[in-house]
Specification:
The complex is a heterodimer of chains A (159) and B (120). Chain A has 159 residues and is an alpha+beta fold. Chain A contains seven helices and four strands. A five-stranded mixed beta sheet of chain B has the order 1-5-4-3-2. Chain B starts with a helix and ends in a 6-residue tail after the last helix. Classes of the chains: A alpha+beta (159), B alpha+beta (120).
Chain lengths: 159, 120
């Protein structure tokens, strides 16, 4: 079996309930013509999207929460344990399509970011001015993941 | 050959999702790929009628929440000299987008048999 690689530029991708523009999307092409996206490429793209979701000031949607959990290889029971809430709370969020605004949303973004990209902060100091503001902290750590080459930059497209 | 173990032992670069024009359902297939590979149960196998060195397998994975539709998936495993070389997910049902919702291994097995997947 042999295969070659093919790169699609500016690929429009669906994930976490949104459309994303992926600057480079890499496929493998088998010798019988079948095209497929390999799991390492899926993980690269999903980490980039996860970083964008975590760095966004918007409250988490349920689709985004499920996406972050899958990317971090956690299940939703693990998420309930992290937040110290009953699983019925997660079920309620699934029904409404949104995570409770405020502390849960921000806590989950921080949790998933550190699960996925915590290495990017190794040996770095977090400036005092961003510690007092959740949006500033999320924006700071988002940039650290890209600057530290832990995640690529992708763009969320308008609905 | 134990095809599911062979699939699990492949490197990430050799485990893939068939490239469709991306739909919401196949976006979910990509999102769930690692979970499916790690947690699925084997339902059956059949030779690929179009490729002499490929085996098709069907698997089912219980939902991560323990409730609702599980994930039914089929993989094309290319092999040579008794060893798996790559696996491509080419079919995915999770109850969305008009696909069947399979809530138990038994219902998934019934569908797999209907599609010609057999015990080794």
């Amino acid at each position: 079996m042999t295969f070659t690689h093919k790169t699609i530029r500016d690929y429009e991708y669906l994930a976490a309930g949104h459309r994303w523009l992926i600057p480079e999307y890499r496929l493998i092409v088998f010798d019988d013509g079948e095209e497929a996206v390999p799991q390492d490429e899926i993980e690269r793209v999903h980490r980039a999207i996860a970083n964008e979701i975590c760095g966004s000031p918007d409250p988490l949607t349920f689709d985004e929460l499920e996406f972050l959990a899958d990317t971090a290889r956690m299940n939703l029971a693990d998420v309930a344990r992290v937040l110290e809430v009953h699983r019925s709370t997660i079920t309620k969020w699934r029904g409404s399509g949104a995570v409770s605004r405020g502390v849960f949303s921000a806590a989950l973004k921080r949790h998933f970011w550190f699960e996925l990209f915590g290495e990017a902060l190794r040996g770095r100091q977090i400036p005092m001015e961003v510690l007092g503001s959740e949006p500033a902290l999320l924006s700071f750590i988002h940039d650290q993941a890209i600057g530290g080459e832990q995640a690529d930059k992708v763009t969320r497209l308008a609905a | 050959m134990d095809w599911l173990s062979a699939l699990r032992s492949l490197p990430l670069a050799s485990r893939a999702v068939h490239h469709h024009p991306l739909t919401a359902r196949y976006s979910r297939a990509s999102q769930k790929l690692a979970f499916i590979i790690d947690n699925s149960v084997f339902l059956g196998q059949k030779p690929d009628p179009e490729r002499p060195h490929a085996m098709l397998i069907a698997v089912w994975t219980p939902p991560s929440t323990g409730r609702g539709s599980g994930y039914y998936a089929c993989f094309r495993i290319r092999y040579a000299d008794g060893a798996a070389l790559s696996a491509t997910l080419y079919c995915f049902y999770d109850g969305t987008d008009g696909s069947p919702s399979l809530k138990s291994e038994e219902t998934a097995l019934h569908l797999a048999r209907k599609h010609g997947f057999e015990s080794p």
